[in-house]
Amino acid sequence: MKVRLFLLFNFVLMFVQLNAQTKDDKELSGKSYVSLRMMYDINRFDTIKAKQIAIAYIVKAKEKKDSTEIAIGYANLASVSPYSRALKYLDTTIVYSKNSPQSDFPAMGYLAKSEYLFKNNEYERSLINAISGYHNAEKKGNISQQITALHQINTINDLWGDYRKVLETELFAFKLINDKPTSKQFLEHYLYSIEGIGKCYVRLNKPDSALVYFNKGIKEALKDQDSVTYSAFVSRTGMALHKKGNYKAALDSLNKGDIYREFYNKSYMPYFLYYSANSLYNLGQKEKAIRRFQKIDSLYQNKHVLTPELPLVYDKLASYFKEKENKDLQLDYLYKLIRVERIIDVKRSQIIEKTDSDYHIPKMIKEKETLIAGLNEQNKSNSVVTKWILSFLGISLLVLFYYVRRQIKFKKRFNHLIKDQQNKKDKIETNENSGISITIIEDVMNRLELFESNKEFLSPDISLTDVAKSFDTNSSYLSKVINLKKDKNFSKYINDLRINYVIEQLDENYVFRRYRIKAIASDCGFKNSESFSRAFYKKYGIYPSYYIKQLENK
Domain residues of the chain, as ranges? Predict the structure, then answer.
């Protein structure tokens, strides 16, 4: 039933999009798969163009009835689509690639979906897809995907699972990585793995072991001249130093690593605030520490950033305000402590149970089945062994039946909750009633078009007020039109134009690639290389130096 719904959804989508086919679409239809893939890679940061290429790819693949290529097309379409649509496209990728002979499928669909769900705090669904990705990668013998899946499973369990089992799995992944030192993703996997092992040792109160692995990361980052990765590992050493009771050194490491906070993932702020606050508290700077603990509470209340340390934070806050004889705040934090502990207990039990039932337990059963097969060969006539095997299989089936039934029940509840949340989101409508006349909007849009074609955004001294004056309008109208029609504020609009200009120049102008980052930043209107790199990373998730390097490699 689900498969039919997925296919129906995408058929309707394709029908609508095909009816709106442009001249460009017709030109794309004549391209080969290789050409379309190359075009997609070049234009992947231009969402509209990339979608157009991905749809053309899907149309071509459907005409040829090539399910693997259809799956690739939907995977590409997912990566340039909003969250809810991306999930549906990835489901379609999985459906079409179930029987694909390629080693990347269907694991690629499961792993991409797991990553999307994790970023949206849907940890249990993320875990389910990561485990499916691991099993499918294992069947195809795809070591790189197995490592990626293990990292994803471990990331979830690092928050809510059994830390000893997480460490065992991290060490297993580390061994797989070092067995393939020449793989394309070796460095990425290597850094991710040593960070994961280090975090496990911190959680298991083995800070010296953690420091060994964090220092490996620092050494690798220095060798690669990667200042962001270097700072991230320096920050991680703060966790281990805190566990050792060396609070001053811990605080120093945490503060040094904090200079690149905007480049780290969403889990960074809670851990930074927690370990720095604890260090400050133990150094006697209680007022400053409490303010940081309260920021962690604020992250949870406003953005629902839940962490395993949150109960400890509320306990600390409740104790502090008890000392201050502030009963209202003490009671407030005690209530929060009780609520959060219940939520975490449920989440942890679900994650551990799911990991054991779908990952650890099958692995153990597989090992036992191998052992039983060996015993069978050696003791065919031994009826006792046969009875033991049957008993074991019977018990295993009962245990698995219990887990499956329990998980189906949990999954139904969870999906029901997700459906309710999605229904609420679907009710939200965009209000385009800006209070500005259509004539003014059209006039501003025409002027913006001229502004873009004349490359006026390259001026380093550009401002909203100046542009508004040159348009013979006011800054309020200009700002509203940009928000309404471009779906971004003025600052982001200018930065995006500059970055798109840089991408265009880098793609077409070989000499431009030879410029230093500082010169490129100046050429496209940024005041310094740091603000340029920051804007580039925020838009595309990579640094300009890395992008240039990849272009050179091609």
Answer: 1-102, 438-553
DSSP type of residue 141:
T
The H or E element spanning position 441 is helix 438-453
**HEC secondary structure over 15-80:** HHHHHCCCHHHHHHHCCCHHHHHHHHHHHCCCHHHHHHHHHHHHHHHHHCCCHHHHHHHHHHHHHC
Distance, in Å, from the CA atom of 77 to the CA atom of 71, rounded to the nearest integer, reads: 10
Instruction: Kindly report the number of other CB atoms within 10 A of residue 376's CB atom.
Output: 13
DSSP 102: S
The answer to whether 18 and 63 have CB atoms below 8 angstroms apart is: no
Q: State which amino acid sits at residue 47.
A: T
Strands (E), 34-183: none
Read off the pLDDT of residues 264-274 as tens digits, 9 standing for 90 and up.
Answer: 887 889 989 99
Residue 372 CB contacts under 8 Å (≥ 6 apart), including other chains: 389, 392
Q: How many angstroms separate the CA atoms of 308 and 306, rounded?
A: 7
Distance CA 533, CA 530 (A): 5
Task: Please state which of the ranges 140-149, 278-287, 396-405, 462-471 shows the lowest mean pLDDT.
Answer: 396-405
The C-alpha R_g of the chain, in whole angstroms, comes to 27
- Own/partner long-range contacts of 418-423 (Cβ < 8 Å, ≥24 apart): 418/122, 418/125, 422/84
Nearest to 293 by CA among 268, 326, 321, 270: 270
- d(C-alpha 499, C-alpha 514), whole Å: 17
User: Which of the given ranges, 287-291, 478-482, 517-521, has the highest pLDDT on average?
Assistant: 287-291
DSSP 8-state assignment for residue 358: I
Per-residue pLDDT reduced to its tens digit, 361-384: 445 334 444 444 554 555 554 555
State the greatest distance between any 2 C-alpha atoms of the chain, in Å, as a whole number. 97
363 φ, ψ (degrees, to nearest 5): -65, -45
User: What is 438-553's CATH topology?
Assistant: Arc Repressor Mutant, subunit A (1.10.10)
Q: Name residue 202's amino acid.
A: V
In 3D, which of 318, 312, 313, 340 has the Cα closest to residue 330?
Answer: 318
Please answer whether residues 191 and 220 qualify as being in contact, where contact means their C-beta atoms are separated by less than 8 angstroms: yes
What the block records as the tokens of 531 is 């603000």
Q: Report residue 394 CA to chain centroid gap.
A: 41
Among 154, 123, 114, 119, which Cα is nearest to 350's?
123
Q: How far is the C-alpha of 277 from the C-alpha of 94, rounded, in Å?
A: 44
What's the gap between Cα 240 and its chain centre?
Answer: 25
Residue 216 C-alpha from the chain's centroid:
24
Q: Identity (one letter) of the amino acid at 252?
A: D
Helix or strand or coil: residue 74? helix
The answer for residues whose C-beta is within 8 angstroms of residue 110's C-beta and 6 or more apart is: 94, 129, 130, 132, 133, 136, 149
Q: Which tokens is 261 given? A: 């906070």
Q: Which amino acid is at 28?
A: L
Is the pTM higher than 0.85? The answer reads no
* Tokens encoding 349: 């039990």
Residues near 251 by Cβ (< 8 Å), separated by ≥ 6? 238, 276, 279, 280, 283
Report the distance separating Cα 38 and Cα 443, nearest Å: 38
